[in-house]
Design brief:
Helices cover about 30% and strands about 20% of the residues. The chain is an alpha/beta fold. It has two domains: about 5-135, Cobalt-precorrin-4 Transmethylase, domain 1 (3-Layer(aba) Sandwich); about 145-260, 2-Layer Sandwich (Methyltransferase, Cobalt-precorrin-4 Transmethylase, Domain 2), CATH 3.30.950.10. The longest helix is centred in the C-terminal third of the chain and has 18 residues, at about 170-185.
Amino acid sequence: MSPGTLWLVPTPLDFGTLDGGRPAPDLREVLPMGTLRAAAGLTHWVVENAKTARAFLKRVHAVVPLAQPLQSLQIHELPRPPKGQRGAAPALPDALLRPALQGLDMGLMSEAGMPAVADPGAELVRRAQALGLTVTPLVGPSALLLALAASGLNGQSFAFVGYLPVDEAARAARIRELEGLSRRLGQTQLMIETPYRNAALFHALLQHLQPTTWLSVASGLTLEDGWNHSAPVVQWREGLGLAARRAPADRPTVFALLAR
């Protein structure tokens, strides 16, 4: 029996941004029909959050009918990272991939955006590769690449460094370390934060970066009210582009720096 394929199914970046009075946008605005058709045909899933996964599949069904009723789909959540270890990869049981090992196609879904990129699903993909499964990524939005493209910073050499420390002194030291690395290599450094800590990270970057270092902030790209802004730190401090000087506490935001 041939093993199945693990499909990496991207999702829109509007998870957590829709209120009860606003209809969800048509998925065809941000996802190709090929991606939607592939998602509609899958009956076994590993996801970051089962509730939002079902909400996404309901939206898929409005465009392409699901192969089985939503209630019949097999949806399993990825294990949560250890408490207090942000970005840590928890150990994953091979049982999550059992359907694919038994010849069935499966889908991997993130909370928002591209699976396995800045996402705990990377460990499942690594395990699938180790077990000899076929892994097929589908086309869809990646918040990191969208932010990098819109930033005007170095897209030839860049690094995603994940989360910075929560402790103020450790965070300040890490910011200075990343700035030095960026200056030495000419490399863009990208980072994210838990949304309710966005403002704290934003202000720490303004406080500890050199005035000539470029700072870019991008939030909600592909959404109706998405925005991004890039400028030297000195201009952020002086208030240039105040309309963009925001760090929303309810939306994932990508921060990028490039030392000059």
